[in-house]
Design brief:
The chain is built from six helices and five strands. The chain is an alpha+beta fold and 231 residues long. Helix 1 crosses helix 4, helix 2 packs antiparallel against helix 3 and helix 3 runs parallel beside helix 4.
Length: 231
């Protein structure tokens, strides 16, 4: 139990630290760009740059404020937007997103699931950028009796020889220097705790789509059991 508690805290602080790191790095770069434009007296370019950046952030933040009541998940989604934007990957949040707030325990796990899926998607899209403009699309919904998490990317997809074992510990489709094989394994282990399911497919648009389905009744069961064990 102590190890589990420590892991939960590490996940929480890792997500929070990534948000801070991403924001700091992003604004440092953009302030340098803006400073250069002003020093060169490219005032019209500076105004256009500020306007463009403001609109991009306002669209994402507006989407999160309207649709995601869960502050931890919203922070995670914003952090991943910043991460994708830093390397020129188009990052889209579905206009039909909706997610209510859950307990800290459940929220941490949802954020961890999404974080790992999005990290994999960003890397896959980036590695395939020579063939397709890199893009990541995220859909989150608990409108029905299920919590649905979907992450789609423009990567090359999962190699056929790995398809049957991609969720196993140590199995990865990443390049050797990037290899860990832990992300999808961790996602699968968390999904199992909610007795949910994880599926992936290659879409008609040649994109890779990972989908998570969690029954709300199972989420309540997990919360009740966790609360019981705490006592």
């Amino acid at each position: 139990m102590e190890l589990n508690d420590l892991r939960k805290e590490l996940i929480y602080y890792k997500n929070y630290a990534e948000l801070l790191r991403s924001k700091t790095h992003e604004y440092s770069n953009k302030l340098n760009v803006l400073s250069g434009m002003l020093q060169l007296k490219h005032y019209d370019d500076a105004i256009e740059f500020i306007d463009r950046e403001s609109k991009g952030h306002q669209h994402i933040i507006g989407n999160l404020v309207r649709s995601i009541q869960n502050s931890l998940v919203a922070s995670l989604l914003l952090a991943k937007y910043n991460k994708a934007a830093e390397i020129g990957i188009k990052y889209e949040l579905d206009d039909d997103n909706i997610l209510q707030d859950y307990s800290k325990l459940v929220s941490e796990k949802l954020a961890t699931i999404l974080g790992n899926l999005i990290d994999n998607a960003i890397l896959a899209a980036w590695n395939n950028r020579q063939n397709v403009p890199p893009a990541v699309h995220v859909y989150v919904s608990d409108r029905s009796q299920h919590v649905i998490l979907e992450v789609q990317d423009t990567g090359a997809g999962v190699a056929s020889e790995l398809a049957d074992n991609i969720l196993d510990f140590g199995v990865t489709s990443k390049a050797e220097q990037e290899q860990t094989g832990v992300g999808l394994y961790l996602v699968n282990e968390l999904v199992k705790q909610f007795r949910g399911s994880i599926d992936w497919e290659r879409t008609e648009d040649n994109a890779t789509l990972f989908s998570i389905y969690l029954d709300k009744s199972e989420i309540k069961r997990y919360e009740a059991e966790s609360h019981y064990h705490d006592y």
